[in-house]
Write a structure and sequence with these properties.
145 residues, alpha/beta, six-stranded mixed β-sheet, 55% helix, globular
Length: 145
């Protein structure tokens, strides 16, 4: 993936990845937190700026200030995460290379219309595994020194 910005449709990943889906069935916040940790590690390993977007229930869209490593947005009531993602891509695709991770076919089409590209949840899982492996190798090499 050659992205400067990776925007992740949070619930799309949660419902596609068995580990996160299982956590979500017990407690939604736990699944969100685990995904946030995974994406922060990805950002650390790759240098790709990660923005994670979830459907929210508040009166307006907001950014979670507790996660300073990556940007985490929650849509406002009456909005969807998709609409937040679309707004971000429309605003920033002319300035940055943006890739959106989603399994929503309509979202994929809209992202491409605004100048971004997309990857599936399976592709993102592969990217995460590759990044984790590369990071582990770097850590091992540094320990040997």
């Amino acid at each position: 993936m050659n992205a400067q910005v990776l925007i992740v449709d949070g619930h799309s990943m949660i419902f596609q990845w068995p580990e996160l889906r299982g956590l979500h069935q017990r407690k939604t916040a736990t699944a969100r937190e685990r995904l946030t940790q995974m994406m922060a590690r990805f950002q650390d390993a790759t240098g790709v700026h990660v923005t994670l977007v979830f459907d929210g229930t508040g009166p307006r869209a907001n950014q979670d200030e507790h996660h300073t490593q990556i940007q985490v947005f929650y849509s406002g009531s009456g909005q969807t995460a998709d609409s937040v993602i679309e707004r971000l891509v429309a605003r920033y695709a002319s300035e940055y290379t943006i890739v959106v991770a989603t399994d929503d076919n309509l979202e994929r089409t809209t992202v491409e219309t605004f100048g971004g590209s997309w990857i599936s949840s399976d592709q993102l899982a592969a990217e995460l595994a590759t990044a984790d492996s590369a990071l582990s190798e770097r850590i091992t090499r540094l320990r040997r020194r």
